[in-house]
Design goal:
This is Ankyrin. By secondary structure, the protein is mainly alpha-helical. The protein folds into three domains: 156 residues, Alpha Horseshoe (Serine Threonine Protein Phosphatase 5, Tetratricopeptide repeat); 108 residues, no CATH class; 74 residues. The chain has 23 helices and four strands. The strands form two sheets. Strands 1-2 form a two-stranded antiparallel ribbon. A two-stranded antiparallel sheet has the order 3-4. The longest helix has 24 residues.
Length: 384
């Protein structure tokens, strides 16, 4: 990383021209100075400032063509405040080294030319920089441009599309780094990497050459392509915990279908892990999704129905035991914890009345049953 020097008078003049985005004045200035402009550009100041100020592509090209850039894959501190006269309280000390360093350190935001152009959504300039050697996978403080844009809340689908079309790929970018990204960006990266242009070209080549492929071999080719990337388990867990099952289903498309049994075990294990209230609601919600939706997840509707029936049956047995014991406190806690499923335990008034009659229930237990199943907001004192 390079340190910004104190501005010379000529550098200040360049800055003023850049602020005006005046191509003709900059061209005249370059032609008029006795020393080459790249001597003023010892810190890559002009190009980065032009990008930071969102100058026209003509100005960017003019600076690039008149400076000896060995590479565009460099970083500088984005310290525009240093040159903004309105931000400098003590103009008498502008040339004081200590003061200038202090000003520089106020903003330790590190930028590369390509990053700045994408921050400004200047795709024309970004394309120009890439054509002249700017690396789409260049890291800044060990972070890719994609990650920095997300952190700055400047990432858009258009910017990600631009990055993907210009060579950014999960081939180099570890998918684990996408864990904090919005799902739409994860999906875009996956679909760019799997079934990519090369894969489609290979399929077309097979078709054009008249080669016959069995259904089994075709499915094998598809599965190999899908499985060339391994989705980290924490991706599934995030959406499983949020009960966003469609996203779990989407990610499952990239799971090795030969290991569907291990996927089932994995899902069931973490449904239990996420059952924070110990009331089986995570299982109930997930299996309800399976029952009520067409899904490629490796759970049949029959299996899901059976699992929900087991949950209901176990809760019925537990509730009857509490009623038999006239354990009002535990029954109250049970009813509160399992409120989500009470309507499926006893759906008719007669069932509840029979339950009360079959056991020597206390008035407080009767009150709880009336309140939770018969929708009778009775006063407990009147029941007594």
């Amino acid at each position: 990383m390079q340190t910004v020097d104190i501005l010379t008078e000529k550098q200040k003049l360049v800055l003023e021209i850049l602020e005006m985005d005046n191509f003709k004045k900059l061209e005249d200035f370059i032609n008029s100075i006795e020393i080459p402009i790249y001597f003023l550009n010892s810190t890559n100041f002009e190009l980065n400032m032009a990008l930071f100020l969102n100058c026209s592509l003509k100005i960017v090209k003019l600076i690039y063509n008149n400076c000896n850039y060995k590479t565009l894959n460099y970083v500088v501190k984005c310290s525009y405040h240093l040159y903004d006269k309105d931000n400098i309280k003590d103009k008498m000390n502008l040339n004081d080294v200590d003061n200038s360093n202090e000003l520089i350190n106020i903003n330790n935001c590190i930028k590369s030319p390509l990053l700045v152009s994408l921050e400004n959504s200047d795709f024309q300039t970004a394309e120009f920089l890439i054509k002249n050697g700017a690396d789409i996978s260049f890291k800044i403080n060990d972070k890719y441009i994609l990650e920095i844009l997300r952190e700055e809340e400047l990432l858009t689908t258009k910017k990600l599309n631009f990055l993907l079309k210009n060579g950014f790929s999960l081939k180099k970018f570890e998918i684990e780094r996408l864990s904090n990204f919005e799902f739409k960006y994860i999906k875009m990266c996956l679909e760019n990497y799997v079934f990519d242009t090369n894969f489609i070209k290979n399929l077309l080549s097979i078709y054009k050459n008249g080669k016959r492929i069995s259904k089994r071999n075709f499915n094998h080719i598809i599965n190999v392509e899908k499985n060339k990337i391994v989705i980290p388990r924490n991706f599934y867990l995030e959406y499983l915990d949020k009960k966003d099952y469609r996203k779990v289903e989407y990610l499952y498309k990239y799971y090795d279908t030969a290991n569907s049994n291990s996927f089932e075990e994995f899902i069931l294990f973490y449904l239990n892990y996420f059952d924070r209230n110990f009331n089986k609601k995570t299982f109930y919600d997930f299996f309800n999704f399976i029952i009520n939706n067409n899904t490629i997840l490796p759970f049949s509707k029959e299996y899901a129905i059976k699992e929900i029936e087991i949950i209901i049956q176990n809760k019925k047995l537990k509730m009857v035991q509490l009623i038999k014991n006239n354990d009002t406190l535990k029954l109250k806690a049970f009813l509160r914890k399992n409120n989500y499923i009470l309507n499926y335990l006893y759906s008719s008034k007669n069932e509840i009345l029979n339950l009360i009659n079959d056991h020597n229930t206390s008035s407080s237990v009767v009150y709880l049953l009336q309140k939770n199943f018969l929708n009778e907001n009775s006063d407990e004192d009147t029941i007594n």
